[in-house]
Every structure is written in structure tokens, then in C-alpha cells.
Hints:
By secondary structure, this protein is mostly helical. Helices cover 69% and strands 0% of the residues. It has a domain at 119-395. The protein contains 13 helices and no strands. The chain starts with 61 loop residues before the first helix and ends with a helix.
Amino acid sequence: MISSVKHTPFSASTDFLPKKRFLTPTLKFSPLPIIQNSIFNNKFSSEKPLHISSTQNLTFSPKEQQKELKTQCNAYEADRSRPLDINIEVLDEQARFEAAQRLKIGIYFATWWALNVVFNIYNKKVLNAFPYPWLTSTLSLACGSLMMLVSWATRIAEAPKTDLEFWKSLFPVAVAHTIGHVAATVSMSKVAVSFTHIIKSGEPAFSVLVSRFLFGETLPMPVYMSLLPIIGGCALAAVTELNFNMIGFMGAMISNLAFVFRNIFSKKGMKGKSVGGMNYYACLSMMSLLILTPFAIAVEGPQMWAAGWQKAIAQIGPNFVWWVAAQSIFYHLYNQVSYMSLDQISPLTFSIGNTMKRISVIVSSIIIFHTPVQPVNALGAAIAILGTFIYSQAKQ
């Protein structure tokens, strides 16, 4: 028998299924947002089951869990190849240290220039009344040596620990220092202070030439080009100088060359030594004094000194003694400060600072001694100084 069955639509209802299966459904956290049901007043019906369409976002595979764990534990302590944010603080401290060093060198330079101006004023006064540059140079070195011996004896300054090798390396420096000191003093005794320092502003040119031809140091082309205004300005100032004197001119040129060698040898001699800049120059003064004294006696002699001293005292009075003492004391002080600067900078930077110092010396000497200056002469000095500035920029 064939019978037919009438199919009726089947309607799913929670009453058809056993309620036991849906009493305690196991729910997992899902990052999906909750969808509010507005039909049941924003509440889920407890009579219908919750259907989860996908479980892909609810579980994590072991590999993904391990990967997530590594990412969270990858701290700096486990991997020191990563940079630290603390490097920023280290750079800040380094910047502050460099700024403090620049300030320290700036103070050295300002003190050095001020002392040098005072020395040049008193030195020229002494030479005008007492034209014996060899004895004047000797007294300057003797005064500085005496000051440092007293400082060491009274423990105001700590005495340096030296050996035979130190004095051997100091000897060529002392020879160059002696020649440069006497040559500059001879130049000032013959010409105006401003003219001597205009010629001595060409010291960077000598420094570059010596570094190039004797030490094989090659510099960029702009550095060599910057020497043209220095040399041209010095030449123009020399040609237009009203009181030009060949001995004074040659003395300034020899002083330039000697002081370049002194600065280079000093830097090499101070490298790796425990003697600081102040004590280094004290030892240099003592050795230079020993070198210079016999030559000063041979060139001028005690008889000339005695006659010249009596004449100066008769013309100036007791103030002349103070002038001699002042020029000797300030000569030692300004050189001592300059060597404290040389202890921390290069010889070329030292030459640049030495040249910039001459601007203050030239201007102050013209004002104090009423030195007549022609416009062309002033132009030559300005060109030489401008060339020195260009040289310093090209060197940097």
C-alpha cells in the first residue's frame, strides 16, 4: 500500500528541544561588539539560545600565543642591542660639558688678551726710556722664573715632577721661545707697537707654510687662498708705515717664525706629559733665561745697562722702576695664561687666537701712544685682520 504523507512546515522552537542543553551554555570572550536587540528592550531573551557564527577570533593557536608572548617580553634587558632612551641624557651631558669647555677657553682667551694689552703698554714705555731690548727681555724671563720658584716654595702651586727626557724635549721649545721673545722686543724698540703687531698678525701664514713644507700637512685650497689677504694686508701696512724701520720689520717677521715653531714644539712636548700648561711655561721661562743671559751680556753688556738705567731714572723718576716691574710681571702672566689655553687647543687655533688678540693691542696702542695712522695704513691692517678671520673659517 502506498500512502502519502503530508509535509507541514517545521517551526523550530525552544520548547521542542530539551531545555537541559541550554541551561548552562559555555561562553567564551569575543572581541565582537554586543549587538543590542531593540525588539526585546535591549535584553537578550533567555528563551532562545545564543548562536556564535564563527569561533575563529575566540581561540589562539599555540604558535600565535608563543609569538604574542615573545613580543611582550622583548625588553631591553633581554636584548641590549637596542638603543636606550637614556642616550638622550648622555648627549645632553656631553653638550653641557662641551659648552663648559668653550666657556673656559673663552675666559682664558679674554684674560690672555687683557694681560697682553697691559704688557705691551708698559713694555713700550720702558723701551722708549730704556732702549735695551736684550736686557728688557732677560728681566721679563727672570721675573717670571722668580715668581714660579716662590710659588713652588710656598706651595701656592704644586711643583712639577720632571725628568731628563722632559728637559730634553723642552730645549728646542726654549730656543724658539727665546728667539721669538727677543726679536719681538727688538721690533718694538724700533717701531710703533701697532706696526709690530700688524706684521705679527701674519703668524697664521707662517704656521701654514711650516706645517706644509716641514711636516707635510696638506690643507684645503680655501685655507691657502685665505693667506693672500693676510700677506697683502701686512705688505700694504708696511709700505705705508710712516715710521718704517727695517730692523723693526725683520724683528717682527723673525718673531712670527720662531713662535710658530714654539707653539708646535710645545704642543708635542706637552702631549703625554704630566706637566700642565702653567708649570710647563714656568720651566720654559727658566730654560730660556739660561739661554738668553749670556747672549744679552755679550750684545749689550753691564756698562751700557748702567748708563741707560741712570738716564731713565733721571728722566722718568721712580715710576720707571714700576714700569720695568709691571712689564716683567704682566709678560709672565699673559704667557702663562696662553699656555694654559694651548694645553687644550691645537697650535693653529692658538695662532688664530694670538692674531685676534692683536686687534685689541693695535687699537689700544694707537689710542694710548697717539700713533699717527694713514687711511691706507689702516686699510692694510684691516685687510690683514680680515684675512685672519677668513683663514679661521676656512680652517674650520
